[in-house]
Amino acid sequence: MSYQSITIVGNLGRDPEMRYLENGQAVTNLNVACNRKWTDRATGEAREEVTWFRVSVWGRQAEAANQYLSIGRQVLVEGRISPDPNTGSPRLFTRQDGSVGASFELVASRVQFLGGNGNGNGNGRHEAAVQEEDEIPF
Predict the structure, then answer these.
(1) Residues 85-107 as b or e (16 or more Cβ within 10 Å = b)
(2) Neighbours of 57 (CB within 10 A)
(3) The pTM is what?
(4) What is the full DSSP assignment across 43-85?
(5) Cα 103 to Cα 77: distance, rounded to the nearest angstrom
(6) Do residues 26 and 18 touch, judged by C-beta distance below 8 A?
(7) What is the DSSP secondary structure assignment for residue 138, as one 8-state letter?
(8) pLDDT by residue for the chain (138 residues), tens digit each?
(9) Within 10 A of 130 (CB to CB), how many other CB atoms are there?
(10) Domains plus CATH for the chain?
(11) Contact 113/60 with Cβ under 8 angstroms?
């Protein structure tokens, strides 16, 4: 038996996008930016790296995420990586400037709402209404 789990904490880069499948199950997509900041030892410059994750949230938890989350909001997501089915790697795309980017895709098992709206407002922690236990239809 194999097991994988990933936990990320970041801020929403845009408002959630929710839709319902033909069978009535809700799915919400989140774009989460995780920032890493450091000082370059050689130059003393402040540096920053941003990694984007596209997160799929399912079922009742998807509805709660869509209702309560918005751009800038900080979240903690636990889930599993969903690789590109053709390559087994992150999905590659071409940016508007012509450079290549990668989309790291996660399927959430738990979403926890953190902090405020990303602007330093609020300090509460709120768990999504439910932790999804239903089987995800892939």
Answers:
(1) eeeeebbeeeeeeeeeeeebbbb
(2) 30
(3) 0.76
(4) T--EEEEEEEEEEEEEHHHHHHHHHH--TT-EEEEEEEE---T
(5) 16
(6) yes
(7) -
(8) 778 899 999 999 999 999 999 999 999 999 999 999 999 999 999 999 989 999 999 999 999 999 999 999 999 999 999 988 888 888 888 889 999 888 899 999 999 999 765 554 444 444 443 344 443 333
(9) 15
(10) 6-127 (2.40.50.140)
(11) no
User: CA of 131: how far to CAs of 2, 36, 96, 115, in Å?
Assistant: 22, 28, 37, 19
Rounded-to-integer distance, Cα 116 and Cα 73, Å: 6
Q: What does the block give as tokens for 97?
A: 């400037």
Q: Which residue has the tokens 């390559």?
A: 87
Beta carbons of 114 and 70 less than 8 angstroms apart: no
